[in-house]
Amino acid sequence: MASLMEDLIEVLNQECIEYDELLGLSSKKTPVIAAGDLEKLSQITDEEQIAVGKIQKLEKRRIEVMTDIANVLNKDVKTLKLTELVRMLDKRPSEQRQLAQVRDKLKSISQHVRIVNSQNQELLEGSLEMVQFEMNILQQAGSAPETANYNKTAGTAGSLIGTNSGRFDARQ
């Protein structure tokens, strides 16, 4: 059981390290999103995917260790939580303290990651709304009212107000 607890503590510590890296990457993303630097955003997102892959591997290992611990304790792995495991380690204060510390640290880091990701999501949604607004303005410019110019047959020959042509000029 002692080696299983050591394994669990080690896996959780490694998860903390990876979540800390993910937090750093997510924090780097905030000014990049605000600046609209798509190339840098893509690069950071790729780095985040690598960190998430590492976290998923560690999470799989954590589940394996928790399953082994649950089997030794004759508990259901689906209901065995770290908090309960910490309470069960009353007779092993050193392991109890280590497990409680790493659990609290992991909880704190993951909460910070959620907060930063939520802020980044709001920034991205704001950017998308701005792009949509600009697209609407461009579309409405094509349907601007005509000037009141008439030709010899009393038909309107007016041009559109505020537009030079109905095409997008990529050279500008």
TrEMBL record:
Any single biological process term in GO: bacterial-type flagellum assembly
UniProt-recorded name of the protein: FlgN protein
Taxonomic superkingdom: Bacteria
SUPFAM superfamilies, per the entry: FlgN-like
InterPro entries reported in the protein's UniProt record: FlgN-like, FlgN-like_sf
Keyword terms: Bacterial flagellum biogenesis
Annotated source species: Butyrivibrio fibrisolvens DSM 3071
